[in-house]
Amino acid sequence: MTVYCGIDWAEKHHDIALVDEAGTVIAQRRITESSQGYQQLLDMLAEAGDSPEAPIPVAIETPRGLLVACLRASGRQVFAISLLSASRYRARHAVSRKKSDQQDAVVLANILRTDMPMHRPLPSDSQQAQAIAVLARAHQDAVWRVHRLGNELRSILREYFPAFLALFAGQEGGVTCREARAVLKIAPTPAIARPLTTAELHTALKGCGRIYHLHTWAERLRTGFQTDQLCQSHLVEEAMGQQALALLAVLDAACQAAADLHQATVTAFRAHPDYAIVTSFPGLRELTGARLFAEIGDDHTRFADARALKAYAGAAPITRASGRSRAVVHRRVKNRRLAAVGYIWTFAAITASPGARAHYDRRKDHGDRHSSALRNLYNRFLGCLFHCLVTGQAYAEHVAFPTAEPEGSAAPRPPRAAVTADAQRS
């Protein structure tokens, strides 16, 4: 008898349901996320016929957590069903739109019973790859947090200290750069910044790690602080200065956390066997390569072909056809972290790879916009990356982007013929 397991995940407890191949519920139980609860789950599965040779597949609503980690370590297939998909399946069982945790567990089990081939199980990534994914995603979140805090700080400074923003407008990172944060600590308001001397500003810039053009920077800042500008009242300006300093402390901590996670991510990625292959591609370096690797993992059987990888990354378009109408649009449902890495990768590749630049220019000549041309180039690179990871080969420019042969020789091959058959089918 074939049995399927569904788990409705919650913060304090989890509801378990087992159904057979006919859809009959054979067992139900509520457990806690503890060693005792996990043992109860294993006992349920064992009573239903679970064995190391034929483990019962499990459907759950989240791809992470302690329970999911233990289930994956047991060697069984774990399917992470999105909340949107689960809600659509729920309507097949109850048109009245009723909902309960026990019923949701049954719905998840029935998803595997009826449509398991349509869903992808969680990949069998190594522990090393999973650790890299944790660090890379944490670093990306930290960078986004720095940008968000920088925007908040910029919004505050616009209210009472626009001259400070003008002085660092041309600096990379704006108010989040180390020079701006160091100066703001000693000059939180226009009244405090105006009497500062060049020597004091020089000391602040040197303390943050700046080496070159210290005197020029200090003199420019002193001149900018002494220019006439609109001001808030004294008490309001002082209060806003305190607000800016409080947010600056949070921003400093976020910047330090991002720097620490950057180093940890790069160190962990360098030790992985796929590091040399990923970083051999133009435009991919240690950090962007780690972010890309974090989303695809080292389970090379995760994607059936290059087309599946491209769809997962959002690089492959989708077709919407109904009757005589047909539209080809870019994919919106995708791995957003992987799509974000793709834009950075391809934008850097068009200056590092002549073949990538020619491909980008050709798409622009055909009428594509900048983002569409980069997405098409990303689609091309993913096909090459899939082949390289599967075969263990490093990137080769002349293979990925072959040049046309001179006149009188054999007919030139189309650019996509340089990629493997898997990438060519995509």
Structure description:
With 426 residues, this protein is α/β, with parallel strands linked by helices. It folds into three domains: 3-122, Nucleotidyltransferase, domain 5 (2-Layer Sandwich); 131-268; 278-425, no CATH class. The protein has helices at residues 35-47, 66-73, 83-93, 101-115, 127-160, 162-167, 178-186, 190-193, 198-207, 214-225, 234-270, 275-279, 286-296, 306-313, 336-352, 354-365, 370-391, 397-400, 421-425, and strands at 3-8, 14-20, 25-31, 58-60, 78-80, 318-322, 325-329. Helix 15 (336-352) packs across helix 17 (370-391). The longest helix has 37 residues, at 234-270. It is globular. The model is unreliable at 404-426 (pLDDT under 50).
Poorly predicted regions are 404-426
Helical element count? Answer: 19
Structural class, from secondary structure content? alpha/beta
Looking at the structure, what is the overall shape?
globular
Secondary structure elements and pairings:
Elements: E1 3-8, E2 14-20, E3 25-31, H1 35-47, E4 58-60, H2 66-73, E5 78-80, H3 83-93, H4 101-115, H5 127-160, H6 162-167, H7 178-186, H8 190-193, H9 198-207, H10 214-225, H11 234-270, H12 275-279, H13 286-296, H14 306-313, E6 318-322, E7 325-329, H15 336-352, H16 354-365, H17 370-391, H18 397-400, H19 421-425
Parallel strand pairs: 1-4, 4-5
Antiparallel strand pairs: 1-2, 2-3, 6-7
